[in-house]
Amino acid sequence: MNDYALMNKSAGHHLDLSVLSRAWDWIKYRALGLDESDVPGERVASWSLSSDARVRPLIHARLALWGLDGLAEAAELLVEQLVADVEEHAVEVHAPGQYRLTVWATDDMLRCEVEAEDPDDAPMPHDMRVFRRLACCWGSAGNAFWFEIPMNPQDKCRNSGWVSGGRIA
After folding, report:
1. Is residue 136 part of a domain?
2. What average pLDDT does the structure give for the chain?
3. CA distance linking residue 51 with residue 63, whole number of Å
4. Which domain holds residue 5?
5. How does pLDDT run across 106-152, given as a tens digit for each residue?
6. Do the domain assignments include residue 106?
7. In Å, what is the CA distance from 53 to each residue of 59, 84, 100?
8. What InterPro entries does the annotation carry (predicted)?
9. What is the CATH number of the domain that holds 142?
10. CA-only gyration radius of the chain, Å
């Protein structure tokens, strides 16, 4: 029982804030399109967004929450490149681009993926120089483009066996 519930119980009321906490979780993760799961040794956050969403604050806040501030600038820049490609194609077809942004953090790697809702909007960056400079590996699969950044810049890419179109540092 939390402190607030204990205080109110001693005053003759009993209010369990866990109900409010569960309601807030439902609002955040279901009604607002946010999704988060906890896997031992891995942190995952995923958002369903439209092309006009501001992704930099989402990435920055999530990585700060996970204590990965040092990777935020590179991740923000790379994700923004992918989202810009989804937006560019959406403008061409005069429709809002919908996509899912997913961020995974393990003990040794940060992985970001942008998956377009429409297969025709699949992100493919035009300028790969920034990926070559900041990511250890990257690739695409179906409607999605992903990249990885090692927690330690001296580490090699752990996915060297299945990289599609990416460079192994």
Report:
1. yes
2. 71
3. 21
4. 1-32
5. 888 999 998 887 766 666 777 788 888 899 888 888 788 899 999 88
6. yes
7. 12, 11, 11
8. HATPase_C_sf
9. 3.30.565
10. 19
Same domain, 5 and 70: no
Residue 138: the pLDDT is 87
Structure tokens at 59: 């990435």
26 shares its domain with 52: no
DSSP state of 119: G
Taking the C-alpha atoms of residue 36 and residue 165, their distance in angstroms, rounded to an integer, is: 29
d(CA 20, CA 151): 36
Are residues 47 and 111 part of one domain?
A: yes
pLDDT given at position 23:
56
How much is the pLDDT for 125? 73
3-state DSSP call for residue 118?
coil
Q: Is the pLDDT assigned to residue 50 strictly greater than 50?
A: yes
Question: In this structure, is residue 161 part of a structural domain?
Answer: no
Per the confidence metrics, is the pTM higher than 0.85? no
Q: What is the mean pLDDT of residues 58-68?
A: 92
d(CA 86, CA 76): 15
Give the position of tokens 């001693």: 10
Structural contact between residues 88 and 75, judged by C-beta atoms closer than 8 angstroms: no
- Residue at 2: amino acid letter: N
* Rounded-to-integer distance, Cα 22 and Cα 32, Å: 14
Tokens read off for 124: 């493919």
Quote the number of domains for the chain: 2
Specify if 146 maps to a domain.
yes
